[in-house]
Structures are given as C-alpha cells and as structure tokens.
Amino acid sequence: MRIRHKNFFCYFILLLSFILSSHLYAFEVDTLIDEAEEAADLGDGYCLTPSGSCSLRAAIQEANAQAIDVEITFDSDLSGSVQLTLTGDEEDAAETGDLDIEVGITIIGNGTDETVIDASNLGDRVFHLVASGAELVLKDVRVTGGGSEDINSGGAIKAEGGSIQIIDSKIDNCSTEEHGGAIDTDSTEVSIESSILTENSSNAGGAMFLENGSVEISNSSITGNLASEAGAGIIIFLPTSAEISDSIFSNNFSNGLVGAIGVAGGEVSITNTSITNNYATHFSGIGSYISTIDIVNSTIAENVAFTNSEGTDDCVALEVTLDNMEDYDCTGGKAAAIGDLFQGNSTYTITNSTISGNRADDYAGAVMLLNGSTMVLNSVTVANNTAENYGGGLLSIEATYQMQNTLLVGNAANTGPDCFAEVESLDYNLVSDQADCRFTAAENDLVGDSSNEAGTIEANIKTLSDNGGSTETHGLNSDSPAIDAGNPAGCTDGADDLETDQDGDARVIDGNENEVATCDIGATEYDPSDVDEVIEEPESLNDAGTSTEGDDEEASDEGITDDQNPDENDVTVGGGIENYLAGGGFLGCQLNPDVEPLKNQSNVPWLLVILLLSMLIFRKVCHSREGGNPVHFE
Predict the structure, then answer these.
(1) How many CA atoms lie within 13 A of 569 on its CB side?
(2) Residue 450 · residue 417 · CB < 8 Å
(3) Which terminal Cβ of the chain has fewer Cβ within 10 Å, N or C?
(4) 261 phi/psi in degrees, rounded to 5
(5) CB 474 within 8 A of CB 383
C-alpha cells in the first residue's frame, strides 16, 4: 500500500493541527498588578488587560470565558507578590474579589519564594471553585493572607465538587470564622503533595476542613495552625477515602478538641508520618468518631492534652459509663496521643509504630478508647507517656485493646501507670507495670507489677531519636529483655509477616547472637552492631546552684552560627503558639513588598494563528481534486 505524497501532506497537516490545538491554551502572567480584563474582550483567546499586560486574574477570566482548561505560568523574570486588590463581592466571574474558577486551571509559579499570591488586602478568600467540575492545580507557588472575619470558610481555597492539587507549594496565614482556615471542601478530590500548610486559623479545621470527598496527603507538613474549638490541623468528615503518608503534623494548637487530625466516619490510613508537639484539651494527636484508622510506621510523640477551666461545649454531649472512674468533666487534659470523640465506636489498627512522651494533664497520657471501640497493636512501642490521674499509657471505658509483640513500658500515672484499661494479650508483649490494669496475659508475655512482689520490668530502651527511618523511634540497648523475645514464628500485622521494622531495617535479626533469629518486641529490631546509649550524669552544681563546668571560660556572645541555623527546608513556627497562649493572638507575617512590576507584554496566541493557517492549507490542498473526493489510500 502506498500513500500519495499529496495525501500524506494532508494527513501531516491534520496531525500538526491536533498537536497544536492540544497546547493552544496557555497563558503567561507578566505583571504583579491585579487587573481585570475588559468584559468586551473576554472570550477572544487573549489574556490582555487594558494596560496591555497579562495578569493572573485576566488569565483566569479568559479561561472561564472560553470554557477551556488552561495552564498559567509566570514570566521567568517575574518575582514578587501578586497583591490581589480588586475588592468586590456578589459575583462569581473573577472580575473582583476572589479568583473564581469554573474550568480546569493549572497555576505554575517560579517557586514559593518567587511567586506569591497575596490576598491580605483583599478581605476575601483567594480561590473559589464555583463549578462542580472545576479543577485547580497549584505548583511552586505560595498563597497567603486569604480570608477575613467576614469569610466563613476556605481562606485560601473553597470548593464544592471538582478537584484540588497542591504540589511543591505553601499556604500560610489564611483565616476564616467557621471552618477551613486554608482549605474548605465538600465532595472534592484533594491532593496535597510536597507542600506546607502553616499558621492558618479557624474555628474548626485550622488548616483544612474536608467533607465527603477524598484526600491524599504525601510528603507534606501541616504545622503551626490554630483552631479556637476543634481540629487545628485538619478535620476529615465522612471521606470516601483518606490517605496520609510521609508527612509531618506538628505544633498545631486547638483551644478545644483535636490538635492534629480529626476524623469522623470513613476510613483513614496513616503511614510513615510524624504527629508531634500538638496541643489540645482532648485528643492532641488524633481524634476519631465512628471511623476506621490504620496507622503504620508512624510516630505520635510529645503531644499535650491540657486542662481548660472553661470547658468545651462540644464535649458535654458525652454520655459515657465510667467504670472505676470518677468526676469525668469537659475541662480537658485527656488523651494526648489518640482518643475517641463523643461515643467512640471506632476501629484502630497500629503496626510498627511508636507512641511516646505524650502528656495528659488529667488522664489517658497516650490513648483513650470509649464505648465499643477496639484497638489492635502490632509490634508497637508505647513508652514514656504520662497522665496526672489515670492511665499513663492506655485507658478504656467499655472498650478493648488487643496487642501482640508490643512494648508497653515506662508510662506513668497516679493510677494505672502503663494502662487503666481492658487489654487482651495476643502474646509476646512486654508490660513494665500492669498495676491497676485489667490485662489478660498470655503464656509468653513479660509482665511486671509494682503492686506485688513481681516488681516492674525495665525495658532498657533508648531515648526517642532518628535511627535511620522516616520517623523517630526508640532503639533497644543490648541488655533489653525485648531482644529476640517476640513471636518465633515471626512478627505480623495480624495477617502477614512484617519484613521490616519501623526504621526500615530487617524485622528478624539474631539480636542476642544465639544463632536463632527471632523478632524483637516493639517497633524496632536490635542489631548487635548497634551502640548502647550512654546517659551522661548531670553536671555538678556549686553552692549557687549553677554549673561548675567551664567557669574559667568566657561566655560566647556570637549567638547562633550559620551551621546552627535551621535548614531552609525545615518547618519552624515563630511565636505562633507561644503568642496565643500569652493572649496576643496568632502572629502571622503578611507579605506586602514594594515590587516594581515588569514591563507589560502582550500574550499573543500565535498557536491559534498557526492552527487557522494549517486548516486553510488543508482545505486548499486536500480538497482541490475534482468532485471533492476525500483523501484515500491507493
């Protein structure tokens, strides 16, 4: 079969037209000024304002008018803050106020330091997905200053339906009155990848309030956000699916329930994630209501459940049966790591994970389960958590724990130091002190008891630190009784054998070098090549109560050296939580640089011209035969 040269040329023109048309709609922003396109010019295929520039607002207007998906980039020489200043409301065409989106918009900046979209002078949110099928992708940009006391939800982004993708970006200093300080969605697909949400605030869902849709968070940091009542980090309500991986939730502060992650309904998986240093009256790490939560290779540590003399209105709805408990109230200080919201009925599975150093000012230093909830702990380390009154480690009220191959050690409380709970052993656990705990031991458990002659068992674990994995863990010292004391048949997640520990090292190592490799109890495996941790004795004090070491040396006045400064990729919180506790509100820095706009340039859609020319050529050349016969093969 042979294609005539003329016909081949026609097909080439068709192919070229298709390729060009698929890349037709792309606009390049060349100004930092917030300027709208004239209404009469909308839909002409040009991003062109009256001043001859292509602004971010004009590019979005033109995309909406054309009803097409558009990729918006920024001139490579354009650096600074796009200050949104065209105030207005009661319209959803992006002409004034927030940037309304009806189609698929992809915004690609030049980096979070170079491309900033700032709504601090707008008195409105930043983006609003007004159509159910609208899509927004943000990449390499910073969004800041969105929302106000008049905006109920979604300071940076609000959506009902559609999808949102945040990639390599930062959203900060956005606030709303009711929920979703940064992001508020309903029935929306949300994806957060390699991004930072920090110092956003709202009544509920300081960073995000996500309802009904799906959410995927990976390699991201949710830090330093504030909620006046619930969910300083995120609230996930009735999700169709929710996955969190390789992320950090830290220094989020709620003056009520839930510091980091609140879940109501649905299933949530959390993998390779750190939930640390969050604050709330209840459930400072994770709070759950009628949900299924699966936690793997993660660390929940150093969270604080503090007391609040004013109480929490939402908490008074609790109607729990307090077996062996008394004076339950809603003033807080309960469940610093994980806890059941309201009536419980949640299911938790935790594998290869660490729950450490959490503190509750009342009870449940680590975990609290309520009516009907269950938690299965597989190869978990629950250590060094504290509660003022009951249950330093685990606490339950008409709910049950099951655990296997788990360390429950070094926790402290006035009653039930390691647990004040119903705990069923699935064997091969180490419990340092089962006093006051309703613990049903199995044959191979190692159990101490401070209330009788058995005494407590020292687990000899190392301090929480970076041991090479994605999250901090407690390693084992060489004299730990947990070494090679796990299940000889292999440690499992309840179904399959675990191949690695929380640090990512091989799960079965011959730690005691008896030529029989057996997994260790807890989240990590001991390797004989590991070095034991040496706890240094404190410095001696002189009569004045100060250190005698280095008395002859002059104090340095150089301050922090360059190599002590945080890495630029590290997330730090400056004055946020501390200032709030001091009564000064939540500090945020709003960018308002005095940047001279670059010279405006027209964004002429030359691809459209080529497309039209190619169609003309096709018509002239390919239909020039007598009778108008179509192109055919011969």
Answers:
(1) 6
(2) yes
(3) N
(4) -130, 120
(5) yes
Q: Which two tokens stand for residue 204?
A: 């509920």
Single out the residue of 600, 602, 598, 607 nearest to residue 48, CA to CA: 602
Choose between 570 and 195: higher pLDDT: 195
Q: Is the pLDDT of residue 592 over 60?
A: no
CB contact at 8 A, 155 and 181: yes
Do the Cβ atoms of 405 and 487 come closer than 8 Å?
Answer: yes
- Under 8 Å between Cβ of 304 and 281: no
Is residue 62 within 8 Å of 27, Cβ to Cβ? yes
Q: Which of 138, 143, 159, 157 is nearest to 213 (CA)?
A: 159
Instruction: List CB contacts of 458: < 8 A, sequence separation 6 or more.
Output: 432, 481
The Cα–Cα gap between 187 and 8 comes to: 48
Q: What is the 3-state secondary structure (H, E, C) of 146-200?
A: CCCCCCCECCCEEEECCEEEEECCEEECCECCCECCCEEEECCEEEEECCEEECC
Q: Which residues of 422-436 are buried (b: 16+ CB within 10 A; e: fewer)?
A: bbbbbebbbbbbbbb
Q: Which residue has the tokens 């936690």?
A: 295
Q: Strand pairing of 127-129 and 157-160?
A: parallel
Q: Which residue has the tokens 């005691």?
A: 512
Give pTM, 2 decimals: 0.82
Cα(222)–Cα(337) distance, integer angstroms: 17
User: What DSSP character marks residue 410?
Assistant: S
Classified as helix, coil or strand, 412 is strand
What number of other Cβ atoms are within 10 A of residue 287's Cβ? Answer: 29
Amino acid, res. 431: V
- Tens of pLDDT along 51-106? 999 999 999 999 999 999 999 999 999 999 999 999 987 789 999 999 999 999 99
Three-class secondary structure of residue 322 per DSSP: coil
- Cα 376 to chain center, whole Å? 24
Q: Rounded to an integer, what is the distance from CA 116 to the centroid of its chain?
A: 21
d(CA 548, CA 527): 38
pLDDT for 549-565, tens place per residue? 444 433 333 332 333 33
- Both tokens of 515, joined, read 């030529």
What is the distance between the alpha carbons of residues 487 and 498, in angstroms, rounded to a whole number? 11
Rounded to an integer, what distance in angstroms lies between the CA atom of residue 622 and that of residue 255? 72
Rg over CA atoms, the chain: 30
Cα separations in angstroms, 542 against 513, 535, 552:
46, 22, 14
Q: Which residues contact 377 (CB under 8 A, 6 or more apart)?
A: 350, 401, 402, 403, 404, 406
Q: How many other C-beta atoms are found inside a 10 Å radius of the C-beta of residue 328? A: 14
What CA–CA distances, in Å, run from 66 to 25, 69, 91, 102? Answer: 10, 9, 18, 10
Q: CA nearest 296: which of 238, 379, 192?
A: 379
